[in-house]
Structures are given as C-alpha cells and as structure tokens.
Amino acid sequence: MTRWHRLWTIWLLTRNLEVVIHALRMRHVTTVYEFVISGGHLRPMGLHTRIEWKGMEFEMLSHQLWALASLKSMAEHGWLLTRLDTDRYLVALPSGDTFIVYRDTMASDLMVLHERFIEDEYGRVDVSNHLVLDIGANIGDSAIYFARMGAEVHAFEPFRQLYQRLSGNVERNHLGQQIYCHQIGIGVCSGTTKGIYNRQESLSSAVSSTVSDNLHDIPSELETVQLVSLSEALTIARLSQAS
C-alpha cells in the first residue's frame, strides 16, 4: 500500500484533516495508519494530541506521534497507562513495576520503557550479583531493569528534574536498598559545567561546553550540573557498598 493510500485510509477512519496533516508533515504516516486501523483514536488539540486506545486516554505532543508504535505494543503486552493529573501518568507493567511518566516527555519515556522491558535490549547481559553504574539514568528504566536482574545499581543523573523522576520511580518500586541515586553526572574530570535539559525529550538532554549555541533549536533550559570522573564514580559506588 502506498503512502497516499494510507493517508486516505487515515482520513476515512478519523474524518479529521488535522490528523492526516500531522501524519504527513511529521512523517508518521505508517505509524498513524497502523494505529487507527487497530482501533485507536486521535484528536489533535494544537500542540498536543489526545489519544484513545484500549480504554486508555492520554495526551502527547503532536510531533511525537512516532511513539504510537511503542504504545500499541505495550497495550498488546498487558501494560496499563493511567492518568494521574494534568501532566502525569502511571505506567503499570505486568510484573508489578510502575513508572511515573510526563505528558511532554511521554514519547521518549515510553520508548525507553519499551526498549528495556519488552524488547529486552540488555537481556544478554548477566548482571546478577554485579555492581552496575547507570550513567545518565533518566527516569530509572535501566536502573530498575538491572536491579530486577539482581544487580546493585548506582544511578547517576545530573539534571534536577530527571533526578527527581528517577528517585521517585526507584522509591515507588521499593528498590531504595538496591538502587543508589546520585544527582551528579560522569565526565572526563570532576567539576561543574552547563547542560541542556530538553523539556520535551529527556533523552536529548546533554552536558556540553557549547550548549549555549544550541538552545534556540529546542525547548530547553540551561542548567549547571555537577560532574565526577568515572574513577570517582566507582569510588562512590564502592564506598556505598562498604557502608
């Protein structure tokens, strides 16, 4: 089926020109097509799109509809997504683990959770009874995955909002005795530097000496972050083990 046939099908099923335009402009035609023919409903609301799927209702940024593929797969694997308030959602895995994700970072949050717990990207790595350093721990997806595999995890996340989400998800899953969260980043050497916190795609947040040149390109904020070297991070982890 050609792209134009898919667009026509999207129009027939949604009767919403905005959905068709979003799919075409953002190059998500196949993803949106597969979503709507499976019974999903989309309603653009300007910057965000309201999504209805398998009894779940939520919103995500309209330009991030590529995440619909992850959402569809999650529903098929028995995951549940529940709205808590205007900005926060609870993702419940069949295993019993839960994560808080946010409306404006929904796409990247769902993607990393899908990679960890459905695609099982790290499944070939035996971490049982090992010490794991999770560098750039984001919302805690990898840290919690490794902890469930039997590792002691030290999760390093320098950005304030991401650190709060990381530590919140660790606490929510009662893993505070197995995952140690540190609000610092890992760099070539220790010190402070500037970093970009991307408010819409947490995976794009980065520490760089040239971040000020890029701020106009993304919805971001400049944040001063603390760094330690890898050897210092290992020392922090080993001292925690000793205590």
Task: Describe what you observe in this structure.
- It is built from 8 helices and 13 strands.
- 37% of the residues are buried.
- Strand 7, helix 6 (141-148) and strand 8 form a beta-alpha-beta unit.
- Residues 209-217 have low confidence and may be disordered.
- It has helices spanning 3-14, 17-25, 29-37, 68-76, 106-117, 141-148, 160-172, 230-242, and strands at 41-45, 48-53, 56-61, 80-83, 88-92, 98-102, 131-135, 152-156, 179-182, 185-187, 191-198, 206-207, 220-229.
- It has a domain at 127-242: Rossmann fold (3-Layer(aba) Sandwich).
- The chain has 243 residues and is α/β, with parallel strands linked by helices.
- The protein has a 4-stranded mixed β-sheet with strand order 10-13-11-12. Strands 1-2-3 form a 3-stranded antiparallel β-sheet, with no helix packed on it. The protein has a 3-stranded antiparallel β-sheet with strand order 4-5-6.
- The radius of gyration is 20 Å and the shape is elongated.
- It comes from Sulfobacillus benefaciens.
- This is Methyltransferase FkbM domain-containing protein.
- InterPro entries: FkbM_mtfrase, SAM-dependent_MTase, SAM-dependent_MTases_sf.
- Residues 134-231 form the Methyltransferase FkbM domain.
